[in-house]
């Protein structure tokens, strides 16, 4: 206004490095246009046609003023898309992890390379999910950045640890400040390491009782002192104190329930209200095992059944022979009207070894031997005929003479009747809602 001159804002911003007076030269940029006598024709001449310098400068200026085309805006849009893709990729991986954890399935395979035909349950399940969901497929696996695929072994471990942490926290929140009982057991894992499993038993706000697995702790040995220290450490991780314990339950091992140095006694010294309850079903099992081992005829019976299991179950060929003889025996009984057909009738059976740690296993062993009595004798006779050395023939001969003897058959049916009664009690004690276990 002071100079009474006209300037072009677009050309001022993007004046080309060109000489000449095209579009008015420097008049609309530096000195200002003052040729008012030429009128609007001079202004229109500066604007020019569609490809003129002014029009090009105008396009550049409008692009500059358009925030949607700015570099920062492009970065924001790209970042937002990356966040959405990452969130979808993460949710897909977490869904697969939840499924595998819920089913108790393994995650990894020994070979997860690009050429592997089986990359483990986690990656294969993620591939299955991607094949059935186009949105997931567009952002996961090969369509994801190589450094952000969320399938590495470290990522899987971190997510599993996070899931375990959140699950444990949910258990502690459910417990709140209530009193609880502890259930402890010790065993070895597949690598031979000693470990202790800790379970808490408590009453919820609605009055129902629940058992929650709190965790596994690796221990150097299974002495009562070591187990107590490990248990205290595990409880302390979740701000739980021994003073809140009102019950404790273990198996019958001496290091767990010993009167003097057992874990039971050590905890009672710290908290006299932590009453010890020995599982009634376990007590019954220990009683049955003790009776079976103390009576010579019963002990001989189970020794004989173990040898039969070792002989008949020594190879797949012998097991197949037993199945064939069993099928033939069932078909014969059906033809003679001695058996009935129906759902869950005449199922294939096998021989199992009686074990002190498997409740009801003695009863199952006796039932199977009685049910497969004739097929077992037939298979033993075939084994005796095919045996190449006299030692094996002699061992099978002892079984063939012992099993069908009057004493063995009598004790076999007697024990079946006795264990049949105790098995009903054992099953009742093992029920989920049992008040005794």
Automatic annotation (TrEMBL):
What is the protein's given name?
Answer: DUF4371 domain-containing protein
Show the taxonomic lineage: Eukaryota, Viridiplantae, Streptophyta, Embryophyta, Tracheophyta
Entry's SUPFAM superfamilies? Ribonuclease H-like
- Family annotation (PANTHER family): GENERAL TRANSCRIPTION FACTOR 2-RELATED ZINC FINGER PROTEIN, ZINC FINGER, MYM DOMAIN CONTAINING 1
Query: Organism's domain of life?
Result: Eukaryota
UniProt cross-references to Pfam families, sorted A to Z? DUF4371
| The DUF4371 domain, residue ranges | 26-262
């Amino acid at each position: 206004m002071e100079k009474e001159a006209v300037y072009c804002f677009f050309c001022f911003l993007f004046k080309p490095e060109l000489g000449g007076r095209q579009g008015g030269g420097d008049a609309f940029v530096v000195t200002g246009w003052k040729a008012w006598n030429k009128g609007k024709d001079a202004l229109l001449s500066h604007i020019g046609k569609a490809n003129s310098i002014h029009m090009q400068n105008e396009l550049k200026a409008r692009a500059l003023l358009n925030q949607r085309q700015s570099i920062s805006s492009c970065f924001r849009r790209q970042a937002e898309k990356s966040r959405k893709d990452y969130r979808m990729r993460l949710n897909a991986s977490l869904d697969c992890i939840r499924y595998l954890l819920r089913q108790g399935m393994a995650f990894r395979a020994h070979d997860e390379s690009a050429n592997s035909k089986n990359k483990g349950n986690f990656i294969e399940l993620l591939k299955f999910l991607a094949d059935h969901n186009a949105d997931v497929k567009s952002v996961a696996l090969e369509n994801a950045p190589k450094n952000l695929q969320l399938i590495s072994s470290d990522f899987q471990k971190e997510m599993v640890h996070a899931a375990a942490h959140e699950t444990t926290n949910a258990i502690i929140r459910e417990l709140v400040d209530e009193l609880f009982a502890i259930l402890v057991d010790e065993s070895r894992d597949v690598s031979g390491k000693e470990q202790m499993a800790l379970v808490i038993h408590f009453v919820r706000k609605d009055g129902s009782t629940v058992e929650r697995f709190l965790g596994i702790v690796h221990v150097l040995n299974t002495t009562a002192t070591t187990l107590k220290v490990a248990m205290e450490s595990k409880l302390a991780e979740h701000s739980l104190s021994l003073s809140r314990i009102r019950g404790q339950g273990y198996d019958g091992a001496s290091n767990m329930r010993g009167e003097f140095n057992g874990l039971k006694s050590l905890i009672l010294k710290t908290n006299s209200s932590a009453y010890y309850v020995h599982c009634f079903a376990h007590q019954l099992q220990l009683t049955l095992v003790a009776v079976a081992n103390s009576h010579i005829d019963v002990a001989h019976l189970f020794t004989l059944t173990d040898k039969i299991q070792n002989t008949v179950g020594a190879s797949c060929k012998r097991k197949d022979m037993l199945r064939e003889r069993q099928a033939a025996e069932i078909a014969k009984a059906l033809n003679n009207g001695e058996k009935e057909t129906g759902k869950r009738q005449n199922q294939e059976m096998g021989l199992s070894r009686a074990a002190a740690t498997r409740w009801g296993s003695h009863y199952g062993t006796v039932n199977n031997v009685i049910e497969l009595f004739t097929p077992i004798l037939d298979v033993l006779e075939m084994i005796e005929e095919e045996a190449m050395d006299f030692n094996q023939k002699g061992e099978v001969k002892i079984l063939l003479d012992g099993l069908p003897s009057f004493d063995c058959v009598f004790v076999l049916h007697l024990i079946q009747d006795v264990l049949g009664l105790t098995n009903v009690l054992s099953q009742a004690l093992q029920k989920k809602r049992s008040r005794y276990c």
